[in-house]
């Protein structure tokens, strides 16, 4: 890549405050990077103009493609031509690579002038101080968009007790982030270059769903418009569910059908068995009761394949519910947790317990590691997917779908008060992780 001769405005050694800020920035980001990426050395920090130019080079393309997260510690305020820079690196980056950037907020412009006067920082005469509105003007001219914002900073250096207090305060009241001296964002590509359709595995956990297995296959054959694989997960059924799975597999050799056995530990663990043993580039979790119909699964494939989001979360609560599709207590419970989880994650989530969700298979290890590290005993698995994707800066979007009455069988959400307490406990754990960063 041919970059500008003078890519950034910095000419001299970094100031004391700038060095302190970069130390804080790296600690913040390393806390929000999946452990598996760090273990596999798939995270790169670029700290100056020379490192930028050396890394973003066509001779370095193999390393660039393998990198999951690129962290640019140089504040965007100091770039000579930000649009040109983002346009050129877009041509080198893999579609799934994310960039973490930072810029100094316009609300601190006057304070920076004072710092500059007393020689605490270098002169910022040529720098542009951003508001988020201004930053989006730049992004609108590129193939990048914000997938997530980090609110984990307020001051440019660590002041014992005060820095921690302000950090907790801005996490509890996100609107206060407008007073933060810097903003940190994850960027992702808007438009993907991939033209060929990739395989999607439909993960269908089943426990005593004998009457729905045949209809699942018939619906798939009739409505699905993309390359797919059916992964049935039999979760210790004691009826004819497993027999019917084997039956539809033998009768439909033209369909890629896998049958996996789980250990009866709940939907979350059954889904894990299915995802790990699937062959698709994408995975979608579907409930065996067909309350979400197969023709709507095409919408999930479209959204994930063109890069609209990294986790596509089905939302049953935007359209009007069909009669008898959801119990009244379940409806209000969903609304309750949607409000709480939206606050915890700072992401708008309208339905937390829809069984239909879609993601890239290679992100599953990240989601599972988050569950293990935070000891999230999530029976259904929905909350962990939302929490993990938000914590690590993935773009989560809601996809409105129609929700129908169960085709056959009976609901597994019987012990509603027990599950309510379990979900509330998960929210408390997530609240402490997102809003009270005491580590």
- Strand fraction: 15-25%
Helical run tally: 16
CATH architectural group of the largest domain: Alpha-Beta Complex
Order of SSEs, N→C?
HHEHHEHEHHEHEEHEHEHEHEHEHHEH
Using DSSP, what is the number of strands? 12
* Class per helix and strand makeup: alpha/beta
Question: What's a concise summary of this model?
Answer:
This protein is of the alpha/beta class and about 450 residues long. Helix content is about 40%, strand content about 15%.
Question: Which key terms come to mind for this protein?
Answer:
439 residues, Rossmann fold, Spore Coat Polysaccharide Biosynthesis Protein SpsA, Chain A, 5-stranded mixed β-sheet, 39% helix
How does this structure look, described?
The chain has 439 residues and is α/β, with parallel strands linked by helices. It folds into two domains: 174 residues, 3-Layer(aba) Sandwich (Rossmann fold); 236 residues, Spore Coat Polysaccharide Biosynthesis Protein SpsA, Chain A, CATH 3.90.550. Helix content is 39%, strand content 15%. The strands form two sheets. Strands 8-7-6-9-11-10-12 form a seven-stranded mixed sheet, sandwiched between helices. A five-stranded mixed sheet has the order 1-2-3-5-4. Helix 10 links the parallel strand 7 and strand 8. The longest helix is centred in the last third of the chain and has 20 residues. It is elongated. The two termini are 40 Å apart.
Please render the helix and strand layout as text:
Blueprint: H1 16-31, H2 35-39, E1 43-46, H3 49-55, H4 61-66, E2 69-72, H5 82-90, E3 98-104, H6 109-117, H7 132-139, E4 144-150, H8 162-172, E5 182-189, E6 200-206, H9 213-223, E7 228-234, H10 241-251, E8 257-261, H11 267-276, E9 282-285, H12 294-305, E10 311-315, H13 328-345, E11 357-360, H14 364-373, H15 382-391, E12 396-400, H16 416-435
Parallel strand pairs: 1-2, 2-3, 6-7, 6-9, 7-8, 10-12
Antiparallel strand pairs: 3-5, 4-5, 9-11, 10-11
Helix pairs in contact: 13-16, 14-15, 15-16
